[in-house]
Amino acid sequence: MDDKTKIRQLIQENVSKKKNTTDKIMPRFFLLMAFVSVAATFGIVATLITDAAKFFSQVPISEVFSTKLAPLNANPSFGILPLITGTIMTTVIAMLVAVPIGLTAAIFLSQFASDKMRKILKPIMEVLAGIPTIVYGFFAYSFVTPMLMKIIPSLGAKNALSPGIVMGIMIIPLVASLSEDAMNSVPDIMREGALGLGSTKLEVTFKVVIPAAISGIMASIVLAVSRAIGETMIVTIASGSSKAFTLDITQSMQTMTAYIVEFTSGDAASGTTGYYSLYAVGLLLFVFTMGINLIAQHISKKYREEY
Amino acid sequence: MNQETNYARKDSRMMMKDINQKLPDFKVNSERIARRVKLNNFLKHVFSMSTLFAIIVLAVLLYRIGADSLGWLNLGFLSRNLSIFPEKAGIYGAIIGSVYLMLIVIPVTTILGVSTAIYLEEYAAKGKVQDFIKINISNLASVPSVIFGLLGLTVFGRILNLGSSILAGGLTMSLLVLPIVVVASQEAIRAVPGFLREASYAMGADKWTTVRKVVLPVALPGILTGSILAMSRAIGETAPLVVLGIPTLILKIPSTIMDDFTALPIQIYYWTLDTVLTPEYANLAAATIVVLLVVLFVMNSAAIIIRNKFQKRF
Amino acid sequence: MTNGISKNENIVYDVKGLNLWYGEDQALKDINLEIEKNKVTAIIGPSGCGKSTFIKTMNRMIENIPIVRTTGKILYHGQDIFDKSVRVEELRTKVGMVFQKPNPFPKSIFENVVYGPRIHGIKDKALLMEIAETSLKSAALWDEVKDRLNDNAYGLSGGQQQRLCIARCLAVQPDVILMDEPTSALDPIATFKIEELIDSLKKDYTISIVTHSMQQAARISDKTAFFLMGELIEFDKTSVIFSNPADKRTEDYITGRFG
């Protein structure tokens, strides 16, 4: 019997003896793990809904949509509108910073910058995106606010403007990188076609690239909005906790996220209406951000250009 | 379709008419071209300004934090425990807390996350259920972190009665970064070329052997990169921990995962909040930020090195 | 696996009335064909004729595509490979496969060759080394790689990679080797080396090769099957197919009138 036959027999013996037990067990294990991961989503929704329901059963809906928010008063009131205006204010300010700067940075990076520049600039953007929000919060409170106070003397130590701006800065890399991806995915032939007709790069950008990449750009802006709404630490630190219903960006105000942080760290006793109000606000926040994300997905799917 | 071509034809006919009307006085207008080029160059600089702005902000931020921490960041600061007196305060407890947190987050997220990714990519029948799970997980990634805090507070803090212990914090944080690990691992597994799986199956390997011996080793760098990035997110995240109700001043160094704890970002938060009363807390916060940023820098560099080293092998 | 049904020891594969569908589209229609021991059987035909589908059915690799459905029998030494008692792992150990594009694992040359023996439970280092050497020698690659067995397989040239894949396939000492256009990604010199190799392998193994090159089929095969639109048009000795085909369509194809 030669070596080859010997090896053949050995291997075929092993194969026919082998039972594929692990091969049958592993998929079940993986399925279980996947189930746990998915259960987390439902866990969030279930948690929020159960406790939010208790809130809504205790507080009349007319009060919820009022402008008076005073959860810790002897006679508490749970009007949510101050939190919504607070959230809208900081989000709008952040968008005013992030969208123009993020988009122009994306245009520069994808259309004008040389490869060498891009290699240096992109990692810097990534660093900016990787800085924890708590650091931006510190920056807003200890640097941006005092600086702005020199320009606007009436600015409060806690205000909506400074965290709004810093939030915008934090979001720049998100807008820039997603929009840049969208612009880069416009095929070169479209670009070259327009350049070949004697267009300048600027004209190519605005007449060819941006129209072709518009869905990706829109999606990046929508995602940025969702990010701004959900951002917590910057506003918690730099905008204070005034619950007044106001549109004055120079004064203290509170966002939905900051309300949640303030109330939990303030040891809200479990079972009180105040405690359940956290979940109501959380649910609202969840619905907002989820809705916005679905819109973003819809935009990028529906208007995806087929090249 | 037919209608469209009709429109197109009409359009082009009108265009031709247009052009014919204009043609007699059409000549290359060099002045106009010069203007266009000028505008191009001008706006190019405007655009580069925005990129520059981002860099300047980063520089100012780093400079401010560096300057504030100067003189405060030293070995004593790293090895001392918390104190209400700024000169005596240190972040040893917070460092230990963050390390403990990672000791929970890393195994939990890698086991859950990589397994989920393997299931979705290798085993799940491609179809509606898989799409549903996929959408769920990617949506989970964009839920604000503070909501994960609420989930942790209810499920781990109250229902499982873990309070604001390391275990509660670690599990909450794990859920927060789980989607990142899942999505990154899925991408890494999907990037393993089908011909490698084919080669393994053709050798008589069963699915699990193929996954273990071929798919996972090839996908490992991608999985690792994603996991490191997820960990760096977890180490800097503050809101969920605050919502869990981590006490302001923890003087005891945690020794088991059931102990209360503080972590680097939490410490930054509390010190920043109290700078009105004690201005030196700003320096302590800045010094802690430097430590946090150094840790993040090391982690991200590792991720980038792994990514570059193993990019495009086929 | 010998249950006496096989009337002839020399018949390795006996395909009987094989039909195959991708969803609604029928890709193979009533294929009947015998593959003989220690012969090279070439399968030719224009692209889309089902030749690749057919060869991937012989080791059931086609089942990796979920929508595939088959009827009919493929008897391997008398045993129907679609029978419930047949495990694909076992079948594929006996029936190896070499693919169109070289597909070594991103591991060392050595690890590539011993992949099969390892996953099938051989742990002995010395034996693995012996297997690696024998297989690489059989694949005519030993002399080129013996000093760098621990280098990554992707450092090899395309032709070397394909011979490595053949060595990897030989390492488990299969009975049959299926080759799916093994030289279509290679240059003429590498192709020539593979063809030489096929010729030297047929004394130990039964080989079935899909090829889009009629010259290749004529050079290396003993028997040739001509497929057209999912049907087996003609199956005969290679010399007959290329000199005196019975079917007009075969003649048209080999004389280059279509395909």
Helix and strand layout, with pairings?
The complex is a heterotrimer of chains A (307), B (314) and C (259).
Chain A: H1 3-17, H2 21-58, H3 61-64, E1 69-70, E2 77-78, H4 81-112, H5 115-130, H6 133-151, H7 161-184, H8 188-196, H9 201-230, H10 233-238, H11 256-265, H12 273-302
Antiparallel strand pairs in A: 1-2
Helix pairs in contact in A: 2-12, 4-7, 4-9, 5-7, 6-7, 7-9, 8-9, 9-12, 11-12
Chain B: H1 2-22, H2 30-69, H3 75-79, H4 92-123, H5 128-140, H6 145-159, H7 166-190, H8 194-202, H9 207-236, H10 239-244, H11 264-273, H12 280-310
Helix pairs in contact in B: 2-12, 4-7, 4-9, 4-11, 6-7, 7-9, 8-9, 9-12, 11-12
Chain C: E1 11-22, E2 25-36, E3 40-44, H1 51-58, E4 68-76, E5 79-80, H2 88-94, E6 95-98, H3 109-113, H4 115-119, H5 125-138, H6 142-145, H7 158-170, E7 176-180, H8 188-201, E8 206-210, H9 214-220, E9 223-228, E10 231-237, H10 238-243, H11 248-254
Parallel strand pairs in C: 3-8, 3-9, 6-7, 7-8
Antiparallel strand pairs in C: 1-2, 1-4, 4-5, 9-10
Task: Explain the overall architecture.
The complex is a heterotrimer of chains A (307), B (314) and C (259). Chain A has helices at 3-17, 21-58, 61-64, 81-112, 115-130, 133-151, 161-184, 188-196, 201-230, 233-238, 256-265, 273-302; strands at residues 69-70, 77-78. With 307 residues, chain A is mainly alpha-helical. Chain A is flat. The model of chain A has no long low-confidence stretch (mean pLDDT 87). Chain B has 2 domains: 2-69, no CATH class; 75-310, Orthogonal Bundle (MetI-like fold). Chain B is extended and about 85 Å long. The relative contact order of chain B is 0.12. Chain C has a single domain (11-254), classed as Rossmann fold (3-Layer(aba) Sandwich), CATH 3.40.50.300. Chain C has helices at residues 51-58, 88-94, 109-113, 115-119, 125-138, 142-145, 158-170, 188-201, 214-220, 238-243, 248-254, and strands at residues 11-22, 25-36, 40-44, 68-76, 79-80, 95-98, 176-180, 206-210, 223-228, 231-237. A 6-stranded mixed sheet of chain C has the order 6-7-8-3-9-10, sandwiched between helices. Chain C has a 4-stranded antiparallel sheet with strand order 2-1-4-5, with helices on one face. In chain C, strand 4 (68-76) and strand 5 (79-80) form a beta hairpin. The termini of chain C are far apart. The model of chain C has no long low-confidence stretch (mean pLDDT 92). Classes of the chains: A mainly alpha (307), B mainly alpha (314), C alpha/beta (259). Chains in contact: A-B, A-C, B-C.
